[in-house]
Amino acid sequence: MKFGVIMFPTDYAIGPGELARAVEERGFESLLFPEHTHIPTSRRTPWPGGAELPRDYSHTLDPFVASAAAAAATERLRIGTGICLVIERDPITLAKEVASLDFISGGRFLFGIGGGWNLEEMENHGTNPAQRWKLLRERVLAMKAIWAEDEAEFHGEFVN
């Protein structure tokens, strides 16, 4: 069995590089960073954790920037997203970010994905929450085509 750590990298917490070194020194297999591009000031969607939304959510750093810092500071630790909100990102740019991080980390990048829970955040990115799972699937398929083909094409209902 392998164990990893997940932590919101914030502007008031330990830095991603320092955290990654500490996680690697303690023998963990991986370090994952969650994603929220922003927290809308007006939210209807309740936080799945129950009470008030923790401050971490509105102060979190970009998981790809944090992952790059963690990768640069370590040698064996697997780093990645836990999770990346694919429905809030352009699939062409995201495919390049993921491939770049995997390359600079020496193949240590773990790409965790999900559809999210904050409906207003999705809507701010132009995503219809009712369609998010179909959109997520198409964007992942499009990214797989980009990674596998020199001249990639993908044609779907949401991604073309």
> Can you tell me the CATH architecture?
Alpha-Beta Barrel
Strand neighbour order, sheet with most strands: 1-2-3-4
Instruction: Provide the CATH top-level class.
Output: Alpha Beta
Order of SSEs, N→C?
A: EHEHHEHEHH
Arithmetic mean pLDDT: 96
How far apart the termini lie comes to 40 Å
Protein name: Luciferase-like domain-containing protein
Domain Luciferase-like: 18-159
InterPro entries: Diverse_substr_monoxygenases (IPR051260), Lucif-like_OxRdtase_Rv2161c (IPR019921), Luciferase-like_dom (IPR011251), Luciferase-like_sf (IPR036661)
GO molecular function: oxidoreductase activity, acting on paired donors, with incorporation or reduction of molecular oxygen
